[in-house]
Design goal:
Layout (H helix, E strand, L loop, with lengths): L8 H4 L12 H7 L4 H11 L2 H8 L6 H11 L1 E3 L14 E3 L2 E3 L3 E3 L12 H12 L2 E5 L6 H7 L4 E6 L5 H13 L4 E5 L9 H6 L12 H6 L1 H9 L15 H8 L8 H8 L3 E7 L2 H10 L3 E4 L13 H12 L4 E5 L5 H9 L5 E3 L1 H32 L5 H4 L4 E3 L4
Parallel strand pairs: 4-11, 5-6, 6-7, 7-8, 8-9, 9-10, 10-11
Antiparallel strand pairs: 1-12, 2-3
Helix pairs in contact: 2-17, 3-17, 6-17, 14-15, 16-17
Length: 406
């Protein structure tokens, strides 16, 4: 047996990892995040609790969100082997245009609360990745400012119908005139959901400085510095504020919206129309009969109805019923690229992703959003290769099932 010896410095030094000085410290930390869940953990450390809980939480018992995520954990693929998957095409046609990836950055409210760069950062990443981005009525960047900041992004506008129909018409007109090509009409917010985390944390819109916030300011000085030294946090498309977001929805938005209002939408909007918040086959059929271009099976990320149904479980039935008449999309509970591939395999045209990029925004602004997009893209590509599919069309013919169901 050879004797031991002390290694020479010249032998040890090459083994010592050296930071890549071309990357910032934030970029290096984000690169160590192997999953969206890792980004979520980083976000939880960097954002005040009330801010993190606003993005992370759901309605009441949060059962709807938990069930949505659990459904993806029950997905079972049957991989096919001995197939040439050297080249994989992730492109998909979304409402008449090609998207480089089979997911969309969904509209989210009060986005600049997560990071001062807010909607501009999300739209910039969407433009770089060649995917659509939806700006919310509850956004914190105006319709025009986002269009000016990200002219190359494919922009959609999400509309909550307020009691003041004139105001809603004005929002549609402004979005139409500045190049937004799709209107997302959210239909699951007759009133605001009860979100217990917001109530317990005392989160109001806009956030209020109280004695109880001093400890949070000490723990998260960077976040508070950003808030206090950048433009005030307000809704860019609403004049009303005060109370929790759920309170705001109930106070401002019209609970009397019906299918008859699609005619009114068409009179004020020249582009595509998507209904977001469909939660039954019957309503999917109603939407198809109303002549909309697309629907999103969605329980609002579990933030509205507690103990609601699960979009993924509903998806095959809805696709079979209306898939030839209207494009079917899905959101809620998606935390990985494998989840996105599962949604495609069950028949979705593409998936909408919201919470995942909000975790990235809290973790590191635009760089955090970019890291989430990179993770999702890599996971979609790898999963497609491992189940033996080269295109999104092939994914839709893959063998897949939900364990515990026929």
């Amino acid at each position: 047996m050879a004797g031991r010896r002390m290694p020479r410095p010249s032998e040890v030094l090459p083994l010592i990892g050296r930071p890549d000085r071309s990357r910032t410290a934030l970029q290096r930390r984000l690169e160590r995040c192997a999953s969206v869940w890792d980004v979520r953990t980083m976000a939880r450390r960097r954002a005040p609790r009330a801010v993190f809980d606003y993005a992370d939480g759901a309605a009441m018992s949060e059962a709807s969100l938990a069930r949505s995520r659990d459904a993806y954990r029950r997905v079972e693929f049957t991989p096919r082997v001995l197939r040439d998957v050297a080249q994989v095409d992730l492109q998909v046609e979304i409402l008449g245009q090609r998207s480089a990836l089979p997911f969309v950055f969904a509209p989210t409210g009060f986005t600049r609360m997560m990071h001062h760069s807010g909607e501009r950062a999300v739209a910039a990443v969407a433009a770089d990745k060649g995917i659509p981005y939806g700006l919310s009525t509850l956004g914190t960047t105006s319709i025009e400012d986002l269009a000016n900041a990200c002219p190359d992004a494919r922009r959609w506008f999400q509309l909550y119908v307020s009691r003041d129909r004139g105001s809603a018409e004005g929002l549609m007109r402004r979005a139409d005139e500045t190049g937004y090509d799709t209107l997302i009409l959210t239909v699951d917010t007759a009133v605001g959901g009860i979100r217990r985390r917001e109530v317990r944390n005392g989160l109001t819109i806009p956030p209020q400085l109280r004695l109880s916030t001093l400890a949070e300011m000490a723990r998260h000085p960077r976040w508070w510095f950003d808030v206090l030294t950048t433009e005030p946090l307000t809704f860019a498309s609403l004049s009303s504020s005060g109370g929790t977001v759920g309170d705001l929805l109930t106070r401002v938005f019209d609970p009397g919206v019906t299918g008859a209002d699609i005619t009114w939408i068409r009179e004020n909007w020249s582009g595509k129309v998507m209904l977001k918040g469909i939660q039954s086959r019957a309503d999917a059929e109603l939407a198809a009969d109303l002549g909309v271009d697309a629907i999103v099976l969605s329980n609002h990320g579990g933030r509205q109805v507690d103990m609601g149904n699960v979009p993924l479980e509903l998806l095959p039935e809805v696709v079979a019923a209306v898939g030839d008449h209207v494009e079917v999309y899905i959101d809620g509970g998606i935390m990985s690229g494998t989840d996105i591939v599962a949604a495609l395999a069950f028949g979705a045209r593409a998936a909408l992703v919201g919470r995942a990029y909000l975790y990235g925004l809290m973790a590191g602004g635009e760089e955090g959003v970019r890291r989430v997009a990179e993770i999702l893209e890599k996971e979609v590509r790898t999963t497609m290769q491992l189940i033996g599919t080269r295109t999104v069309a092939e994914v839709r013919t893959a063998e897949v099932r939900l364990r515990g169901r026929p």
